[in-house]
Specification:
By secondary structure, the chain is mostly helical. It has one domain. The chain is built from 4 helices and no strands. Helix 1 packs parallel to helix 3. The two termini are about 15 Å apart. One of its GO terms (cellular component) is plasma membrane. GO terms for molecular function: transmembrane transporter activity. Keywords: Cell membrane, Membrane, Transmembrane, Transmembrane helix, Transport. It is found in: Cell membrane.
């Protein structure tokens, strides 16, 4: 169950990062509200997951899901560049998350 909670916390991290970009520096009301609400939810779920999972593993998986998800969201929603170097960097993050999970 802790892994499911951690995964959902990572998904909320993607939402808050994307909403933060859309908030235009917290100058737009609803994206700012969405950022704060999902940020609190993400941190709260991470805290619950770390009750039973190792801290280092939890934090790495949580931030990795958020980083890769925000990377993908930036490409799809904001037209950010998908260069081979950026794609390789994202793949290395996924490999790191996988190795950390296998090592737990």
């Amino acid at each position: 169950m802790a892994w499911f909670i951690l995964f959902f916390a990572g998904l909320l991290e993607i939402v808050w990062a994307t909403a933060m970009k859309s908030s235009m520096g917290f100058t737009r009301f609803w994206p700012s509200v969405l950022t704060i609400v999902t940020m609190l939810g993400s941190f709260g779920l991470l805290a619950i997951a770390t009750k039973t999972l190792p801290l280092g593993t939890s934090y790495m998986v949580w931030s990795g899901i958020g980083a890769v998800g925000a990377f993908i969201a930036g490409i799809i929603l904001f037209g950010e560049d998908l260069s081979p170097v950026r794609l390789a960097a994202g793949a290395m993050i996924v490999c790191g998350i996988t190795l950390m999970k296998l090592g737990t």
